[in-house]
Amino acid sequence: CAARPPVTAQAMLRISRVPDELEDYAWIRDRLAEYDKAVFGAVALSGATAIVAVVDDVPIAGITMHDRLGWTHIERLWVEPRHRRSGQARRLIAECESRACQQALIGVRVNTTSGHTALNLYLSLGYAIDARWPIITGLGRHIEEISLSKRFPGSIAYQRRLPLL
Questions:
Q1: Rg (Cα) of the chain, in Å, rounded?
Q2: Which end of the chain, N or C, is less packed with Cβ atoms under 10 Å?
Q3: DSSP result, 10-55
Q4: Under 8 Å CB-to-CB from 82, ≥6 apart: which residues?
């Protein structure tokens, strides 16, 4: 597993189970629930783990994930607009990767869409594109859903060749 970037003094990380332990950050839980309901028609956060970056007790960024079938799956990544381009997303992804590596998982998986700034972020962090498929949005726009992964060759799960699904 790769070394994590140095921790800066700008934000403390807090690890929580969603939604149970996010009462202090109810607005994050509520925002994620609204997003899930609008996009997926249901709230899908139950049982996820969240890592939240906090400055002066105010959440500025977060990532939610599930561990399944030997992989950590990133569900959501968000950074408040005024804190974007400050390295918070990279820091949260690195923490997610570190957590997956410590648990001896195969690696980390994530889905995003073409044209989304997250795609270039994940590619710059060493994620490889596994699959692409077309989507037509409600506005008639053609975009692609993209599945990416980053494997940890040194992990026990990887060496045992667990299923890639």
A1: 16
A2: C
A3: T-EEEEEETTTT-GGGHHHHHHHHHHHHHHHSS---TT-EEEEEEE
A4: none
For residues 2, 93, 59 and 118, what is the CA-based torsion angle, rounded to 10 degrees? 150
Contacts of 158 (CB under 8 A, 6+ apart): 106, 107, 151, 152
Average pLDDT over residues 72-92: 89
Axis-axis angle for helices 88-102, 117-124 (nearest 10): 50
Q: How confident is the model at residue 12 (pLDDT cuts 50, 70, 90)?
A: low
pLDDT(146) > 90: yes
Surface-to-core class of residue 33, CB atoms within 10 Å of its CB (0-12 exposed, 13-18 middle, 19+ buried): middle
Length of the chain equals 165
Whole-angstrom distance, CA of residue 71 vs CA of residue 83 = 29
